[in-house]
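This section describes the prediction task in plain terms. A model, or a person checking by hand, is given the sequence of a single protein chain and must write out its three-dimensional structure as a string of tokens. No templates, partner chains or ligands are provided. The sample shown here is typical of the held-out split.
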Amino acid sequence: MKTESSIKTWAVEDRPREKLLKRGIQSLTDTELLAVIIGTGTKKKDVIQLSRDILNAAENNIGLLGRKTVADLKKGFSGIGNAKAVAIVAAMELGRRRKLEDAISRTKISSSRDVFEIFHPILADLSHEEFWILILNRSNKILDKVRISQGGISGTVIDPKLIFKPALDQLSSSLILIHNHPSGNLKPSDADIAITKKLKKGGDILDIPVLDHVIVTEKYYFSFQDEGILS
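The expected answer:
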């Protein structure tokens, strides 16, 4: 078994950092990219094996790895302390923010798919529920996105006053509701349906129509408007 020091004896083109510099970032596997982030291994495992173990524990799924906290990583792997765990979590968050910036560049909402593409980077990796709104102008261009609340694994508290206040402050013409289901279940709960109908009535009274309510999961989404629930 290679040790942390033995990685220095590898051919230069096989070392992750040198490989990146010589062949480019696209030449690295997920394991090698994680090894670059971690930096070093332990006395018993080189950085490649340690990275492989971490990815295996996340089912080789970067999305699942993105859900792990510093505490999860420290507890789950010998040799992962604060510095390495923080580096991994920071890299996952940076990737999430990059995807968000790419998605938010589409400032006009034309479909529920547009909403999903904007909020998937924000919500897909979370282990708890969050409730957001998109505030739109008359052309369905985004004025703002606002997180209203966050809760536990199975729900979050929604206060209509907190939803309509930012919409009123920004003279919104309409808004879209968004929340995630960490469980991956796309079906809206009775509570989801009830609060959506309540907010739709409130929006009609304030002349700020609720155009849709989109539930986001790791891979898919559910649109109240597409399914005819808002009709």
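For orientation: The chain is about 45% helix and 15% strand.
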